[in-house]
Amino acid sequence: MTCHVLGPVRTLSAADIDTQWDGLAALLHACVHAGASIGFVLPFSLDDSAAFWRGDVWPAVVSGHRVLLTVYDGGRLVGSVQLDTLTPPNQPHRAEVRKLMVQPNWRRRGLGRILMIALEEYAGRLGRRLITLDTRTGDAAEPLYASLGYQTVGIIPEYARDPYGTERWDATTIMYKRL
User: Which of 13, 98, 168, 177 is most buried by its number of CB atoms within 10 A?
Assistant: First the structure.
């Protein structure tokens, strides 16, 4: 598939999310089924995916503690990332990356990089100067984050269950970047 001209990264408001349920659910569902370690294990249905967006992301966007950045090809949602700004009172300078996702058949085209750069720019406009994240150790996203200047703090062994629902436990790499 040839990569078409992509629209700019969009920030979705709660009202925008209300019009994007199907695309958001399809994105998360496809990523989990492709083995993304983003908090879910198989079996994982479209209903499970929709429940995450409705029960976790939408309320956080409504409350102003989460920013949802997306990228589209035409009208089709092909990637997203979230910036979580709900931090304790002693950490108003920090934010956390949550769930960088790119449709499996759109990977390796620079969309993750585009989303992360937009996330960092948005965080900077909010006065956030330290960004943290975790990623499955050895995952394809780890070198992406390193190439963007994220530093590894350490690795936590047996952090999360394998997304395929096996009894394998994956390590996670904790990273940060000063903006």
Answer: 98
